[in-house]
User: What shape does this take?
Amino acid sequence: MVATIRDVAKLANVSVATVSRYVNGTRKVRGKTAERVKFAIEELGFRPNAVGRSLSTSTTKSIGMVIPSISNPVFSDAVSGVSAAIRKEGYSLTLTTSQYSPEGEVDAISTLLENRVDGVILTVTDPETSKALELLEKSAVPFVMIYNQPSSGRATMTVDNVAAGKEVAGELIKLGHKRLGMVSGKFASSDRALARMNGFVKGVRDARLTAPVICEVDFEAQDISDVLEPMFKDMNAAPSALFCSNDILAISVIGALRRLKIAVPKEVSVIGFDGIAVGRHMYPTLATVVQPSKEMGKAAARNLFERLAGGQDPQSVILPHEFTIGESAGPAAKHDPTDLQTQSKPTSKRSPT
Assistant: This one.
């Protein structure tokens, strides 16, 4: 296995940024720290990527950005924040998408490295298994993640997705809902969606209610009527409220429910996640968890520039989210049978964390 810059940092017991500074000579690493880094490099046979070193000695004044999709406005908001921040520093933005694919992420990063960007801001499917992040670390090009769950030793700008998912469960329970469900994009394609689901399930189980119905769909799905129809064949047993892993899915769910002649929120409440602008202009207005995407992009750019200047190691920041109660969420339907709204008995089954 080829040694990466993270392997060197771990063996030397220093940060990735320190190894990068030693390799590229952007800032002097002194004394015993330099000796440990040198030993680790020799011990592991680490060979710095030539592209990464060239970036440290001659800048292109260009920042690369990789987002999963341009069809979801939440990513556009982040791009807007990044673009505004880097323009002030005299940099340009090179934007590409991965289509929620790990392979797409690797292709995108490879292209950005070939174009010799000075740094990268990106969202990946799962930081813990990401080959794209390994490629960046091997090249010694600084990067900052946005939206992803925090990953050890890597800079990340995000919100507390688990806490937000749990908060949604609590809001629906306060509205009297006891049969809950979730419609999410594929968990394998989004660590954020998985975290939101874990928080939502925990909130439901903490209230000693029956575990929610979980339904995974494609992130790019337009009409999910066929997916929802079996779930709502029997309205007395169907969920009275649905949490969607993002606003685009929530809007699709509301449309699908209308096609199935199911009223929102009179018969089924729907809550999304992201806080995209279109949700405030539709009818019913969308209840959602708002994350500060534009500020997230600005924070990522600021963090990246501080690292390019050699003044800061990777840091993660949890930005605040806000639950907004829109017209798509309302009290549980009064016709729900009492026996279906009673709390289930506690079980020994472990809930996901």
